[in-house]
Structure formats: structure tokens, C-alpha cells
Amino acid sequence: LRKNVEDFTGPRGRSDLGFVTFDVTADILKRRHGIFDWNVKQLFLYLSAEYSTKNNALNQVVLWDKIMLRGDNPRLFLKDMKSKYFFFDDGNGLKGNRNITLTLSWNVVPNAGILPLVTGSGHVSVPFPDIYETTKSY
Amino acid sequence: AMLSLDFLDDVRRMNKRQLYYQVLNFGMVVSSALMIWKGLMVVTGSESPIVVVLSGSMEPAFHRGDLLFLTNRIEDPIRVGEIVVFRIEGREIPIVHRVLKIHEKENGDIRFLTKGDNNAVDDRGLYKRGQHWLEKKDVVGRARGFVPYIGIVTILMNDYPKFKYAVLFLLGLFVLVHRE
């Protein structure tokens, strides 16, 4: 799993808004028994950003998600993706925040049975710049 | 003789003592069921350990009628990606959606936002007026496992009361007449 990221923040009144562009390369089949076995109906994949701020000890924001059904191509090769959901902080904790960790995880949805949440092994640490970006947007 | 007459003969043959015995039997079955339910509530930490999915907002993962098994242990922190069942203040019907965002303070107070997989937007429009986040107190439980289709019976009983009465009547009749 590998991600490359470019990002900046814009001022939006009370809350910082982060803009992140990323690439995702993932090969979901690379596991011992293959994750898509007979009892797996779908995988709900999501890319989440985790970070700490002055206001909140732990923040997690889902930037992007995708449903991968059994039978879909298990290899992901996405480039220049924009986040699907607004990356608002609860406050102004994104500006100058050096340590935002992006992780790819997925929820295994079986035909019947347990619903596990699995975290992918690769993760990327991303710093936000110290100043707001006022000219750019998506 | 027709089948129905044989069955009525059986009932007439039972004297009062046997009838009371059957009623007590019935009471025991109901009490055991209640005890199992309460036990589940304690073990899972949830006030409603089993719920039926009522809408299509989590398709294609869950459909109307699927049964979800919940836990609500305080030691399990709420994290993004989890499927939570929550109630909006003042509303009875619980909603099953996924956690999209969390902001947690050092002392453990957490505010989070949810969204149905099949919905285009997050749930803020569903919350109470002026409410922007959900809190731990709104959570009924986290979905840990599920079984498809089985809950359709409860939905049918809810939507068609005559069906519910028919089921209850037949069940009661069966227990009263059954000799064991």
C-alpha cells in the first residue's frame, strides 16, 4: 500500500479546511488465503486521516471511501484523487500540523457473520504547511 | 373425523389442572426467553443487543430485514469506519450508519459524525435542529456481526398488525395444546 500526498489548508472561519490530493496503490489480494473468500460479500475501504490538535487529543476524518464487491478488480491504482468529504477540523488545528497520518482501512462485510475492521499495513505521515493557502482550491 | 375435531377433543379432555400446568409451562418459556435477552444485554453492554435493519441506507452491505448483533462496551473506543446504531434525541427509531469523523478530547469525551454508505451526504440533516455531532450517550451499540433476511419477520409483524396477531395466536395455541 503506498500513498503520495500533496496538501494545503484554507481558512474557513472558525475551522480549518484541509485539501489533500493523494495516490493510492493497493493490492488487496496479497494475503495468505486471499481476502475475498466464499463468505466475503464486499469490502468497504476508507482512507482516514488521524491527527492531534490543541483542542482535541484525537481526531479521525474519513477522506475517501469505496465499496469493493466480490468480483471487482482487487487492485487499486488511483492517482490524483481529491478527498470525497470536506476535511474540516474542529478548530484551527490543521495549520502547521506536522503529523497527519493517512491510513487505508477496510470493513469486511460477510454474507453472514462477524464484521471485522482491518487496518492496512502502509501508512503515510503528512505535514500541513504553516500558512493558509488563499488562492488555491479544488 | 376431520383434523380439527380431533384437536378440539384433545382440549376438552384436558381437565383444569392440566390447563394450569400448560399455562405455567408457557410462563416458563417466556421467562427463560426474557432472561436470555437480559443476559445478552449485560454481556454486550447494549440496551438492544439485536436490531433489525429498517432502511436501505447501508446498502449494499445491509438490506431491510437483516439482523445485526451489537456490543456497546465502554472500553471499545468509537473510531471511524465502525458501524454504529444510534438514536437521535427525542426519536424512537434507531439508525444504523457508519462513523465518518471523530473528535475526541483527552478525557475521553467524543463527538462524531455519521453517514449511511448508500447516502450521498452525511447525517447532519438527520440530527436534531442545532445538533452537529453525536455523542456516546446517543449510541445503542456497534455492529459486530450480522445475519441476512431473518429480521423480515419482525418488519412484517410491524407493518401488518393482523399478521402479528395471527402469529401470536398460533404460538399461544401451540404451547397450550402441546402435551410436553
Automatic annotation (TrEMBL), chain A:
It is a single-pass type II membrane protein. It holds the Pfam family SPC22. Its main location: endoplasmic reticulum. One of its GO terms (biological process) is signal peptide processing. Keywords: Endoplasmic reticulum, Membrane, Signal-anchor, Transmembrane, Transmembrane helix. It is found in: Endoplasmic reticulum membrane. Signal peptide: none annotated. The keyword Endoplasmic reticulum applies. GO terms for cellular component: signal peptidase complex. Belongs to the SPCS3 family. Essential component of the signal peptidase complex (SPC) which catalyzes the cleavage of N-terminal signal sequences from nascent proteins as they are translocated into the lumen of the endoplasmic reticulum. Essential for the SPC catalytic activity, possibly by stabilizing and positioning the active center of the complex close to the lumenal surface. This is Signal peptidase complex subunit 3. It comes from Rhinopomastus cyanomelas. The gene is Spc22.
UniProtKB/TrEMBL annotation, chain B:
SUPFAM superfamilies: LexA/Signal peptidase. Its EC number is 3.4.21.89. One of its GO terms (biological process) is signal peptide processing. It catalyses: Cleavage of hydrophobic, N-terminal signal or leader sequences from secreted and periplasmic proteins. Catalytic component of the signal peptidase complex (SPC) which catalyzes the cleavage of N-terminal signal sequences from nascent proteins as they are translocated into the lumen of the endoplasmic reticulum. Specifically cleaves N-terminal signal peptides that contain a hydrophobic alpha-helix (h-region) shorter than 18-20 amino acids. It comes from Rhinopomastus cyanomelas (Common scimitarbill). This is Signal peptidase complex catalytic subunit SEC11. The gene is Sec11a. The keyword Membrane applies. One of its GO terms (cellular component) is signal peptidase complex.
